[in-house]
């Protein structure tokens, strides 16, 4: 299972379509769901054995007592989290003071917003803050009911198409005169498995990882062909799929930096009352 976005579903879609899963003897029943929360609920309910999920929902899932193993990293998705602004109202981060800003609560959207506030020394008390879902946020932006939104792809790209300007992302500054790489947040999609399933079917899990490893190599060398698969499966324009997939960094290795990023995200969730303790990620 995965949500219907390029951050969580790309490797799975491309691996299926290119036959890499079949080569490893895996006949996968892939469930593409509207959101990460739907995926998490399916894992918690036992209807998914293997799932792709962002690191923040994974922490919440662990907090609920769901027994899972993290079996691979999938992609660094920080670059696919962005603040989009109306350029006739906002040209610099300081222009956000006194403005109407919307973000999605309790996930990478809110984490990026708070990181922007901290990085640029903004006065959050002067802002009118709205907490919305992604679809509602895009509608509010289009109607100019808000001045800025903080959201993930492909919604961010849709807002740009409506005349918005990408001011910053989790990995890059687009601020005029300050363009360049910068790390505001660490955000990742990961592959997890039901602990019971993984313990009972270790060879199946290994076969899935071999198929995904082939897929990542293919995606590195054939981004347009990979994007053709994802754009068809997710019913989006090929050019948009290529652009968004290039914002993500797809690889399977779980590094110490990734674990540190996930722990920072979990600390954010703890500080905001979304979980009551930080999971020990070294144990899972």
Describe the structure.
- By secondary structure, this protein is α/β, with parallel strands linked by helices.
- 43% of the residues lie in helices and 19% in strands.
- The chain contains twelve helices and 13 strands.
- The protein has helices at 10-17, 20-23, 36-45, 55-63, 108-120, 134-142, 155-161, 195-200, 202-221, 223-234, 238-245, 256-271; strands spanning 2-3, 32-33, 50-54, 68-76, 81-85, 100-103, 128-131, 148-152, 165-169, 172-173, 180-181, 188-194, 249-250.
- The strands form four sheets. A five-stranded mixed sheet has the order 7-6-8-5-9, sandwiched between helices.
- It is globular.
- The chain starts with a strand and ends in a 13-residue tail after the last helix.
Features:
single chain, 284 residues, alpha/beta, five-stranded mixed beta sheet, four-stranded antiparallel beta sheet, 12 helices, 13 strands, 19% strand, globular
List how many beta strands DSSP finds. 13
Pick out the low-confidence regions: none
Radius of gyration from CA coordinates: 19 Å
* Shape field: globular
- Work out the strand percent: 15-25%
Q: How are the strands of the biggest sheet laid out side by side?
A: 7-6-8-5-9
Number of discrete helical segments? 12
Which structural class best describes the helix and strand composition?
alpha/beta
Distance between the amino and carboxyl termini: 19 Å
Arithmetic mean pLDDT: 94
The residue fraction in helices comes out at 40-55%
Helix and strand sequence: EHHEHEHEEEHEHEHEEEEHHHHEH
Mind summarizing the main beta sheet? 5 strands, mixed
């Amino acid at each position: 299972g995965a949500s219907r976005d390029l951050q969580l579903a790309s490797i799975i879609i491309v691996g299926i379509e290119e036959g890499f899963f079949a080569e490893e003897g895996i006949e996968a029943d892939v469930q593409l769901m509207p959101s990460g929360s739907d995926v998490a609920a399916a894992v918690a309910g036992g209807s998914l054995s293997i799932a792709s999920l962002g690191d923040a929902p994974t922490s919440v899932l662990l907090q609920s007592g769901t027994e899972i193993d993290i079996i691979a990293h999938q992609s660094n998705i920080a670059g696919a989290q962005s603040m989009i602004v109306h350029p006739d109202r906002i040209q610099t981060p300081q222009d956000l003071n006194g403005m109407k800003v919307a973000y999605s609560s309790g996930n990478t959207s809110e984490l990026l917003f708070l990181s922007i506030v901290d990085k640029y020394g903004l006065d959050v008390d002067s802002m009118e803050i709205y907490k919305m879902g992604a679809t509602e946020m895009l509608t509010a932006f289009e109607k100019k009911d808000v001045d800025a939104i903080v959201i993930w792809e492909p919604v961010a790209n849709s807002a740009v198409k409506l005349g918005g300007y990408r001011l910053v992302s989790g990995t890059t500054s687009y601020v005029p005169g300050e363009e360049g790489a910068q790390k505001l947040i660490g955000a990742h999609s990961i592959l997890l498995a039901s602990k019971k399933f993984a313990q009972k079917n270790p060879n199946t899990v290994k076969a899935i990882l071999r198929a995904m490893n082939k897929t990542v190599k293919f995606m590195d060398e054939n981004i347009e062909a990979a994007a053709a698969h994802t754009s068809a499966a997710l019913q989006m324009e090929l050019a948009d799929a290529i652009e968004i997939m290039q914002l993500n960094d797809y690889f399977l290795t779980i590094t110490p930096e990734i674990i540190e990023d996930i722990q920072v995200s979990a600390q954010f969730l703890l500080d905001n009352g979304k979980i009551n303790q930080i999971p020990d990620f070294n144990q899972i």
